[in-house]
Amino acid sequence: MNDNRTLDSNSNDTTQQSDLRSIGNGTSSSNPSGEQSSEEIGRPVYNAPTVAKNEEKNIVRAKFLVALILVLATATVATSSYILLKDQERSNFENQFRGYASEIASVSGQKADQLFDALNSFAVMVGSQAAVENELRNTSWPFYTIPDFSVKGESLINLIGSAVPQIIMVGPVVEEHQRDAWADYMNQMNPIWFQDSLDNEGTNTNMTVEGFLQRTVKFIHQYDFLQGFQAIPVNGPGDVLPNYQQYPFRLDLASQIMTTGYDIISLPRAADLYEITKSLLRPTIGFSTFFINSTTVVTGSQVLQPIFDTADTTAEDRKVVAIVNVQLHWLGFFENVLTRGQDGVVVVLRSACPVNYTLIYGDNITDYVDDPEDLIGEDIITYQVDGPDVSLLGYEDLHDPEYDSLEVTEVFVDLGFDEKDLPEGKCIPTMTMHIYPSDKLEASFQTSDAAIFASVIVVIFVFTSLVFLLYVYFVGKRQRIVMDRIVRQDKIVTNVFPTAIRDRLYDTQAQQAGKSKVNEHGLAGLEDGANDLGSAPLADLFPSVSVVFADIVGFTAWSSAREPQQVFLLLESIYRSFDKIAYRHDIFKVETVGDCY
What we know:
Elements: H1 13-24, H2 50-137, H3 149-160, E1 165-172, H4 179-201, H5 209-214, E2 221-224, E3 230-233, E4 245-247, H6 268-280, E5 284-291, E6 297-308, E7 320-328, E8 343-356, H7 357-361, E9 376-386, E10 389-394, E11 408-413, E12 431-437, H8 439-443, H9 449-496, H10 499-515, E13 517-518, E14 524-525, H11 555-560, H12 564-584
Antiparallel strand pairs: 1-4, 1-7, 2-3, 5-6, 6-7, 8-9, 8-12, 9-10, 11-12, 13-14
């Protein structure tokens, strides 16, 4: 069955002639401006091809994705570089600290060994000399005065080295029945060795021997510290260990009297050290407090070195007859270990033995303490090593807990005591050294390199991003020009062909573009065997169709007497009206040639 579709041509002739005249005069009854929209002719508004729209969306997404990748890459690389450089700084800091800690532990240990070796040599020398004097002059301890003591004391200082003692004192072991006799001996010999020390040392003082003697207690004594430096006689049972000769020769910095005759072991802390020394026949070391001037008390070390009654220090029957009592600053062990600029190493010294302050200061100390647990404490002292210099931080553990993981612990002084050999209730006098870094040391390894490097990376990425954005701008500008041209071309094709035919033309063109090749002259051509059209004709079979041909009668004569604009306006108005009718009736317009539709 034929589906004949025809145009409605039963128009009023008068109306047609009037329209032609109007058109010929350059006017239109339907639209005074001579233009009609797509809606007026029944067509929808032209839209750009979906492919073009999707392509634009894909380009925007790609730009956003690239920008996001650049931002993430910048942040990742800059952050990673910063973290890596900071980790490297931290690693350098930790490794350098371990080197410093090892150096401090090694050198201070050597100084401690040097101290005990020097004291042992001094004790052997004094013991041997006393043994010879005993044979020649029938003199024995405790009634023995070391000749040229100031000279020997100075030599001992030189042997000890950089850990310079505050004072060196020698005191004989005086048994209870010898106290009065020894006090008489002391008062008899004091003028002699006082003068000897003044002569040899050249002490910077205006005092004479008589002046020093006037400031000397005439009996073996101890002090009541809570009542000031009041000398009271020692009346308890057992041995006493009075100071006798000392180097350097001077008054006690606190009491401004001579220490001669002062019982060292009147203080329980020193008494414990002496008991260990006497039992094990070996030197001991512990914490001690002493004055470094008339008002300042510091905590340092006290070393008791035994002097035996025989020159053979390995004899099983040897007996302790005197003690070399050395007081020195702990900081002397850590001075001149590091070089200038190696600052901020914290050293915490800790004794293995607890401290009972009642034993040190007497029972009256309880009047000043609220909690009994406060009477038991630890001997702890904290120093900071800044290159060759050492400063006291305080008498507690004052290291920064942030650096606990970097702690280096070394045994500072281990005299090799066996706990089972100690007297009952006594503690092994072992000193441990805990070394930590400080924020001062860490700060010396912190630089701005990480921040600078990260900033440079950010600047490079920002510059790259700006170059990319500039490139995108110009490419986008070129893309818009190309897309505008494509859209215009597509609009023209769409006006000429139906959508289905247009799409088939595009598909055929794309397929044919893939088959073209460049010949020997550099020109694109067809493959061998292809026809001149480049593709198969777009021809479809419709068994039954109707074709309308419309021609304007007298157009040639009419147009020859008109301006081109008038001719074009006539044809445009007629074709637009025909297009509107064709679209409404779903009729396919093949083409227009001149005045033929």
